[in-house]
Amino acid sequence: MQTLIAGIARQAGISEDIAQKAVAIILKFLVSEGPKDKIAALLDDMPEVKAMVGDAEDAKGGKSLLGSILGGGGVMATFSELSGLGLEMGEIQTIAEKTIDYAKEKAGEETVNDIIGSIPGLSQLI
């Protein structure tokens, strides 16, 4: 995971601290919004994610009413959180792509694609 964070920091031109926070935000979003069975498989293959986002059951709390109504509030809230770190759209896309590629390498392309496909609006952003 540290190799991923260092690589993201270099490629995006940001500090490793910001890169680590951004990766944690993205992973926490996937864990909280993805289907429970696929998230369990992801966490089995990527135990280091548990340390970054906490226990999957805790992170799998229900979606907010606003998020349900907007059908993408989770995506927008995550984008806002990443923007709050001072990241621009290009940097966010780089971080998301590298994080997703890493997850596919560790947990398998099918599992990760199923998670992405289950979250409304996410596939258009990555």
Question: If you had to describe this structure to a student in words, what would you say it looks like?
Answer:
By secondary structure, the protein is mainly α. The protein has one domain (2-121): Globin-like (Orthogonal Bundle), CATH 1.10.490. It is built from ten helices and no strands. 33% of the residues are buried. Mean pLDDT is 84; it is low at 55-72.
- One letter per element, helices H and strands E, the order comes to HHHHHHHHHH
Structural class: mainly alpha
* Oligomeric state of the chains present here: single chain
Arithmetic mean pLDDT: 84
CATH class: Mainly Alpha
> Main beta sheet, described?
none
**Into how many domains do the coordinates divide?**
1
CATH architecture: Orthogonal Bundle
What count of helical segments does DSSP give? Answer: 10
The end-to-end span amounts to: 20 Å
Question: How large, in whole angstroms, is the Cα Rg?
Answer: 14 Å
**What is CATH's topology name?**
Globin-like
Q: Total strand count, please?
A: 0
Residue share in β-strands: under 5%
Low-confidence stretches: 55-72
